[in-house]
């Protein structure tokens, strides 16, 4: 792994692991829903950071700007935007997440959209847990730009 990636992209993950030690687990062994769980959180953090740093505004406005990107319908659209640039490994993780059987469904999304959104969240979670946050951010940026 490049030193730049370790110092830049992996810094938050390393600090979290240092502050809250736990046994090392290979992220490839996590269930797709566990990957989606962490992926949902890290994706929302990235989007919230993007929204807040663009403009200091009222909470309601921040929420509305964030929802545009985090709702399942738009995450599902991101799958089609990202597919052409995914590696085989990334596409396999996305498929595992998409094919997982979640225990719930989004309020305002079809079952198919929810499954695709779970797939993209699993991909982001996998990239985060494997320390490839630069790649994760690259894909999120591509997806956000594709959503317009």
Biggest sheet details: none
Q: Give the amount of beta strand, in percent.
A: under 5%
Structure classification = mainly alpha
Question: What is the count of DSSP helices, taking H or I runs of 4+ residues?
Answer: 8
Percent of residues in helices: over 70%
Compressed to H and E, one letter per element, the order equals HHHHHHHH
CA gyration radius, whole angstroms: 15 Å
Distance between the termini: 33 Å
Number of strands: 0
Please tell me about this protein's structure:
With 148 residues, this protein is mainly alpha-helical. It has eight helices and no strands. The chain has helices at residues 3-7, 11-19, 32-54, 59-70, 72-82, 88-99, 111-129, 133-147. Helix 7 runs antiparallel to helix 8.
Observed structural traits:
148 residues; mainly alpha; 8 helices; 72% helix; 0% strand; disordered N terminus
Summarize the structure.
With 148 residues, the protein is an all-alpha fold.
Topology of helices and strands:
Layout: H1 3-7, H2 11-19, H3 32-54, H4 59-70, H5 72-82, H6 88-99, H7 111-129, H8 133-147
């Amino acid at each position: 792994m490049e030193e730049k990636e370790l110092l830049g992209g992996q810094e938050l993950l390393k600090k979290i692991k240092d502050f809250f030690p736990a046994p090392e687990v290979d992220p490839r062994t996590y269930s797709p829903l566990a990957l989606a769980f962490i992926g949902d959180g890290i994706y929302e953090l990235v989007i919230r950071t993007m929204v807040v740093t663009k403009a200091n505004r009222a909470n309601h406005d921040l929420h509305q700007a964030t929802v545009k990107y985090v709702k399942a319908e738009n995450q599902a659209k991101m799958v089609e935007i990202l597919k052409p640039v995914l590696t085989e490994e990334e596409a396999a993780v996305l498929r595992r997440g998409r094919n997982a059987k979640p225990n719930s469904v989004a309020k305002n999304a079809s079952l198919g959209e929810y499954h695709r959104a779970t797939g993209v969240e699993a991909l982001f979670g996998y990239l985060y847990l494997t320390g490839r946050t630069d790649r994760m951010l690259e894909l999120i940026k591509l997806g956000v730009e594709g959503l317009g």
